[in-house]
Specification:
With 137 residues, this protein is mainly α. It has one domain. Helices cover 58% and strands 0% of the residues. It has six helices and no strands.
């Protein structure tokens, strides 16, 4: 049996035509970006709002850590699996596609923090839109 057909705890990743780990790995994404992809991809199938908030947190972590280092060595890349193909193959929503495109823009240009800021804002907007927090009585 293929490792891609196996999942420890649940089955949400096995149901994707292109798994988040596969997408991130073949596109050369770093660990932080890989976590962001994972949480954006699975939020509708697993933890809802919590996954979008985790993705937001990983954006903040990645931003903070990269700000402590010289990122001049980062080079633009040509993805093996374009975001549009990943989104289409997995039936991911348009808004999630926008998030993944923003992530890729940030990966290509780590010094342009406005991509990260927009990604964070859009993650919170989607979390509030899809999973509103009930008002306390």
């Amino acid at each position: 049996m293929s490792a891609l057909e196996t999942q420890i705890g649940g089955s949400h990743y096995k149901n994707y035509a292109i798994q988040p780990f596969e997408f991130a790995l073949v596109n050369g994404y770093d660990a932080g970006a890989s976590y962001i992809v994972k949480h954006i991809t699975r939020h509708r199938d697993k933890n809802g709002r919590e996954d979008l908030l985790k993705a937001h947190h990983y954006v903040e972590l990645r931003q903070e850590i990269l700000s402590n280092y010289n990122t001049a060595h980062f080079r633009p890349f040509e993805p093996a699996i374009p975001v549009a193909r990943y989104v289409s193959a997995n039936g991911i929503g348009t808004k999630e596609g926008v998030l993944l495109n923003l992530l890729e823009l940030w990966l290509r240009h780590p010094d342009q923090v406005h991509h990260a800021e927009k990604l964070k804002r859009k993650l919170l907007e989607l979390a509030d839109q899809l999973y509103p927090v009930p008002l306390k009585a």
